Amino acid sequence: MPSSFDLAVTLQRETSRMKRRSKVIRRRQSYICKSHEPSQEIPFDLVIEILKRLPAKSLIRFKSVSKFWSTLICSQYFTNLSSSPRLYMWLGFDNEKILVSSSSSLDLDGSFVVDQDLTISAMKGYSVSHVYRGLMCFTNGTSAQIYNTTTRQLVVLPDLEESSTIARDHKFSKIIFIYHIAHDLVHDQYKVVCIVSRRKVRRRIVKLLLEHWVFTLGGGVSFQWRKIPCPCQPHSPCTRGLTINGRMYYLALVPNSIKPLFVRFDISSEKISVLQKPENAYWSRYYYTEIIEYDGRIAILDHADLVRNGVMELWVMEDEEKNRWSRKTLVLHPSQLNMIKTHIVQNMRLTVQGTTRNGDVVLAPQHIFRTGPDQLTVLTQVTTLFYVFLYNLQKNHLRKVEIKSNRYNTKRWDVIGFDDIENLMHL
C-alpha cells in the first residue's frame, strides 16, 4: 500500500528528472523564465508549500501546466496537505432545499460562519446520503449522483438494472439503499459502495435479501456497477459506516435479533467479512451507536445515555486481528450536561456527523420519531438558531458552537456532515 512518504519520494524523483531536463534547455537558451516547470532554484518542499496555500480555483488551472503538476495536485498526498475542513447543512425554504457550508476554522467568538452556497439545480428532489473527502453523494430512490464540492463537477451514476432484489415485486417489502463513498488506497481510486437490502414480512416471518454493488469513479473506468458476492448472512446497515485505512466498517441488523453485526468491507479487494464485537457490548439501541475514528483507530461510540445522564461508552479497537478492544466510560461535567438539557427537549437527540482533526466529535441535534419496531423518522430542526456540539473525547470536554448566517432565515435546517478535504480529482 503506497504511503504519503512513498508518494513524496516518487514526486521528488520526478522533480529531479525535470531539473536535469531544465539544465539541457538552459544550455540552448539564455532566458528560461517562460518554462512552466519548477526551476532548479526552487526546492521541491517549497513548491509544495506554495501550491498548498493557493485556492482551489487556482490549483484547477495549474493542473494544465504539465503532467507532473497535474499528478501532484490530484495526488492523495497533496490533497491531505491542502485540506480545508467544512461543515455542511441542508436548509429548507417551503418545498425547496439548499446546500450551504461553513469553514470549520472557528471565528474569534467560537462560532462557525456560513460562507458558501453549494446548491445546484441537479440537487432538486435529492437528499444527501454521504460526504467523504470533498465528494458528496445525492440520492433519490434508486437514482444517485456524485458531486465534487471543490470542482463543482457532477456525475450521474447508472441505475442498478441487474439487481434482482429491486426487480422483484415490492408489494410486501421495503427496499433500503445505502450509498457510501470510499477511497481505494492500493489503486488510488474512489469507489461508491451501494448496499441494497430488502425486508419482506409475510405471516410474521421476516425475510431479508441483500446485495452489495461497487462503482469506480474516474476517467477510463467502465461506467457500470459490479455486484460483489457477500458470504455474510443477510443484513441491513443501521449506521452510515466509516472508511479508514482503506476499509469501510458499519453495524448492521439481522432479522429476529437485537444484536447488530460488525461488518468490514475491504475497498481494494472488495471482500466482505463479519468481525467479532467486543465482549459485553450489545448496542441494542443501535440508533444511538455510531462508528467513529479515534486517534487514527476504529472506535464505536454509544451515546444512548448522553442527554439524560451525560454518560457515553467508547470502545476502541486496539488490535483487529486479535479482537482486542479497550473501553472507556465518559462522564460529562454537570455544567455541560445542563447545557445539553437546555437545548435538547422531548423527541430530540444528538447524532454523530463526523470527527474533526482535533478529535472533536460533531454532534448535531435532530427530531426523532419512532414509526415502527425498527424504523425511525428524522425531521429537520424548527428553530432559526443553528448550532452543533463539539465533544473532545480525549479531553472529555463538550461545548456548544453556533453557526452564523446573515443570508438565510429559515426554521428548517439539518447538519448533514463534516468533511476535511478539498478534492481536485476529475470524476
TrEMBL record:
Residue span, F-box domain: 36-81
SMART domains in alphabetical order: FBOX
Record CDD domains: F-box_AtFBW1-like
InterPro entries reported in the protein's UniProt record: F-box-assoc_dom_typ3, F-box-assoc_interact_dom, F-box-like_dom_sf, F-box_dom
Domain of life: Eukaryota
Name of the protein in question: F-box/kelch-repeat protein At4g19930-like
Lineage: Eukaryota, Viridiplantae, Streptophyta, Embryophyta, Tracheophyta
Gene that specifies this protein: LOC108853200
